[in-house]
Structures are given as C-alpha cells and as structure tokens.
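Quick one:
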Amino acid sequence: MKVAIAGTNGLAYWIAHHIENEGQNQFIMLSRAAKPHLTARGWQVVVVDYRNQENLIFSLAGIDVVVSLVVGESQLALIDAAVHTGVERFIPAEFDGPLARRSANDPLDQGQQVALSHLQQHESRGMAYTVFTCGILYERFGPGGMRSANLGHNLGANGEGDYLVNIRSMRSRIPHDPSGIPATISMTAAEDVGRFVAAALNLPQLPTELHMRGDRMNVSELVRVAEIFRGATFERAEHNADTLQSAFMLARYSQDRAEMVRVQMLIATGQGRFDVEDTNLNVVVDVSPISFQDWLRTAWEGHLP
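Output:
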C-alpha cells in the first residue's frame, strides 16, 4: 500500500517515521516547499500547490491512503484530488477529542466540520475515511509547548503553559465538569500517535472513527503529577462554567485573542471534549504508549534549574 502524508509538521514526521519502521507500506510526503532535512533521511518529499488541482491530482497518482495534516481550504482541495485519483481512504486532520463530544458551533474548529461533511458527501464515490482521535497531545505540557515540537501552528494556546498547567512557573487552571469535579482528559504523545496510525494502516478493516490514548486522568491528578515531578506545590485556580465564561468575556472585552483561545480550551475541557473513553484502537494494535508521568520527566530533562 502507498500512503501520502500531507504536511511535514511534528506529527507528520512521527507518522512517516513509524510507517518506515513498520516496513509494510510505502509513503511520500506532500509539502508546500522542499524539506532537505526530510529528503536527507531518504524520504520522498513532493512539493505541491494546494491551489492547483491538477498538481494535486498528479501528485496523488498511485496513492491508496492519504493522511492529512493540513486544514482549511488546502484539505478540501486535497479531498477533491484524492477522490479524482481513486484514493481508497482519507484520514483527515483531526487528532483531537471524539467527534461525539464536540459542540455544533465549535469555537475551536479549524475547518474540521466542513472537511468531514465533504468526506461524507464523497463516500458514495468510493473513498472511505477514518478519523483518529487521541485527546490532548502531551507536547502541550513540554518545554516551549506545541510550537517547540513543530505542532499546532494553526492553533491558539500552543505555547508553553498555555493549557491547564505551566510546569516552569508552577501555576495551573483546573476546569470542573458540570457535576462540579475536576474534568477528565485523555492524552497521547505525538510519537505514539505516529505508532498507532502506522499500526492501524495494517489492519484489514478500518471504521470511520478510531480512538487511542496514552493516559487518562482528571485535571487535578494531572497537576499532582506535575507537582511530584517538580517537587513543589503548584498554584491552583479552580474554575466552573460560570467563572470561565466571565474570564472569556473579560478577554474579549480586552481584545486578548490569545487568552480567549486559552479560555475556550478550558471550557471545552470542562465539557469533556478531550476525554477518550472508548479506546477501540489500543485494543487491536500492538502499541504500548508512554505514560504522561514518564513522558513529562523525559521531555523536561535538562530544561529546568
């Protein structure tokens, strides 16, 4: 089977790396520009123009599966080109919480809803799709945040300490669920997402949604893991839906876009958006994901005094 990975961010790298390690499938990477550091690994990087449908169609010739890490109009163009060339399965740029846990008017949507509608419309033309959900990426809690791991370029709240807990300053924000207890989240390391996706490509059949996770805990437990790692007590700001709504209104009044996104992430967490309960992928592939505690210790090694 031949796979096209659209994008060259950190998650695309790990998916490519583990497809290569599995050794059962071939792959190419689609990029808007040349990537010498990837071609130096012996990987084929095809430069594409997402505004040019003919170019995309040509680049997808002979491809069986597309794994998308691009969003918005670029992903819609990629879907159309994939249908035209007879791609069998499309994996959209999701890697988020379960679809059923998202609100109809999702403020965190980056074009995913439109892309899913587009894929559903094309199912009758023979191209299936599979959404992978993984909850929150561990890299949000690493030094430098998502940005330093070449992830989340289209997202807000992707810097160090922007979400739930700041390891360096030892501060935390704990959203509660509707019952009044700390919300539960599921999390996965980006490298383990790559392992799961590569392994899933070898399954005989894929459903429309596959769920994975590396760890699951409530936010208070997550902060406790961070406290044990730092050997100190963190400042804790407890929030319910009302206090978060007030925080959002204040950020909007102040025109603080970054804080608006940070609060929207907390609101979504309190609503359970990032909790992956049914891990139907974990149970069918041979992947042993790293725990959050072990990942945290490794990620921060050498980054703190």
